Amino acid sequence: MSLLTDLSIAVAAGKRPDTIRLTQELLAGGTSPQDVVEQGLVPGMAVVGEQFRRNEIFVPEMLVAARAMKEALKLLEPLLAQAGIKPKYTVVIGTVQGDLHDIGKNLVSMMWKGANFAVVDLGTNVSAERYLAAAREHNAHLVGLSALLTTTMPAMKETVRLLKAANLPNVKIMVGGAPITQAFADEIGADGYSADAGSAVSTALRLMGEAA
Amino acid sequence: MNARTALLRQELARRPLLCDGATGTQLQLLGLAPGACGELWAVDHPERLQQVHQAYLSAGADLLTTNTFGGTAGVLGPHGAGGRVRELNAAAARLARRIAGERAWVLGDVGPFGGMLEPLGESLPDDVAAAFREQITALLEGGADAILVETMSDPAEAVLAVAAAKACGAALVFVTFTFQQSPRGYRTMLGTSAAEALAAVLAAGADVVGANCGTALSLADYERLTAELVAAAHGHPVIVQPNAGSPKLVDGKICYDESAAQFAEAAPRFLAAGARIVGGCCGSTPAHIAAMAKLVRG
Ligand code: B1M
Question: Residue A25's CB: how many other CB atoms inside 10 A?
């Protein structure tokens, strides 16, 4: 088994010390930070996401895995910066107004950091106006909205409406969260949707005109 | 124990009781915006809240639940009401007590504190216990006859709430957990089984135990879950309050798909499985409870 596979397994099991050690070993052995993220961490989190969807694992296992990934990213982020790989894209992310769920949003945020985006995380319960202000302030390329409640789906719709009405040049809007579907994303006029954190990176790149 | 609470205990041993249905979704029908703070209505719109309690009482509910699900400081805080715990909870309990009169009992409602306990989250048990005590003190001051700790997922959190209720002098404490399906049976979102969850709160001194809400649980699921709860309750009365289906967004409106008739038909099956109190959670309405009352009381 390769070290990358070991890393995937360690992340999925939420083993923080192993995750850190394997990340260090891979880097020392010459694997690029991007490959560590894309071929080690992301597949590990994909397994966790799939098991969670099937109710085979629960919130604690999910959180523990997310924390292990976060530790690995702490090692990787400065390296990406040192290598002079400037983030090409700035993305704003948050959970919509009235909604306090942030586990999924944090995962997407981590995946985007791992893909070397500059991520501005607004947290939870974010009003449409705050998304817009942040998109302006940071010259965002992409605004990501997460919603977990059926009752906050209208807030997502309202946020998309406000962002679209502001006519910011080149700002794409992406949505996600358990009750969100491609059909709903289309209905409210979002530019993109992804069902999980793994595909959130490729969807974002596609929206920004890159063949992912 | 005051006389009314003592009577509730007796009645519980004598006959099946009917609890009310959803408050939050009812308030939304009366104009509460999704995501807005419903607990403020005890003070801002008491007449509308009163209308909901009155409708459930007229439907035949024996137990009315105070509108205080998010009434701890941590949940009120983001709405700028973190300093109004005592005022809002006492007002809500007083209002429910006034409607209930001698015809029904008031359950002082305590929901999740809004975060996660360490090590999963950052909240410390002592802080969470203090938040529960602050809320429960006010609920009892307002006249709640018993405390209902509801929609729990983490047994450790539920135990803190039960202990807080006891410390504040509540003579009767109800606890409900919220479950989902898993390949290993019904579990809370933390992976806790009904047996583990009930064992924890019974050891802490809970009197009545059961389930409410849930993720994608059908009424047939609830019937099986009831049997599990009864087995795990070791003779303590069991309460079940399912959702009226799962929420769906249809033309911008939130709908629940379980009709009052379908919902009510399940109630006798819950009682046959050993439940002693039936009621409803998200999406249930006074019509659901009225239909239940017909079947439960005959
Ligand atoms: C920008 O682009 C993108 C792209 C992809 C994106 C994206 C954005 N955002 C997400 N994705 C996607 O990528 C992620 C990774 O693959 C995925 O993210 P998810 O977020 O879907 O998945 C996460 C990784 C894991 N999933 C989760 O974290 C959600 C898990 C469950 C158990 C859940 C949790 C944990 C919580 N909850 Co809540 N909770 C439930 C959930 C039931 C369940 N078993 O699923 C759900 C979502 N909750 C629900 C409810 C009703 C509530 N919750 C509430 C509270 C909570 C807790 C605080 C206890 C806790 C949140 C803790 C936290 N810090 O987030 C309350 C609301 C509080 C509020 N105002 O927000 C409350 C109202 C409960 C109550 N009565 O108090 C239900 C919603 C029903 C509905 N459809 O409306 C629910 C389905 C459970 C149920 N009862 O059925 C994808 O969707």
Answer: 13
Distances B116 to A121, A145, B4, B132, B270 between C-alpha atoms, Å: 20, 23, 35, 14, 31
Q: Is the CB of A192 under 6 A from ligand 1?
A: no
Asked if B50 and B281 count as a contact pair (C-beta separation under 8 A), the reply is no
Q: Answer whether residue B33 is part of any domain.
A: no
Check CB contact under 8 Å for A58 and B191. yes
Cα A204 to Cα A73, B99, B276: the distances in Å are 19, 54, 52
pTM of the prediction?
Answer: 0.91
- The answer, yes or no, to whether any atom of ligand 1 lies below 6 A from the CB of A103, is yes
Reported ipTM: 0.86
Residues in B whose CB is inside 8 Å of some CB of A read 28, 33-36, 78, 114, 120, 153, 180-183, 187-191, 247-249, 252, 254
How distant is the alpha carbon of residue B263 from its chain centre?
18
The CATH number given to A90-207 is: 3.40.50.280
Residue B189 to residue A151, Cβ atoms within 8 A: no
Tens digit of pLDDT for each residue in B205-250? Answer: 999 999 999 998 999 999 999 999 999 999 999 999 999 988 888 8
Q: How far apart are CA B233 and CA A88, in angstroms?
A: 58
Phi-psi label, residue A179: left if phi above 0, alpha if psi -120 to 50, beta otherwise: alpha
Specify the pLDDT at position B35. Answer: 76
Number of domains in chain B: 1
Does the structure show a pLDDT above 80 at A81?
no
What pLDDT shows up at residue A197?
85
Q: Is any ligand 1 atom within 6 A of the Cβ of residue A40? A: no
Residue range B117-146: average pLDDT? Answer: 96
CATH of domain A3-82: 1.10.1240.10
The distance of A203 to chain B (nearest Cα, Å) reads 25
> In chain A, what residues touch B78 (CB-CB under 8 Å)?
100, 125
Q: Å from A212 to nearest chain B CA?
A: 32
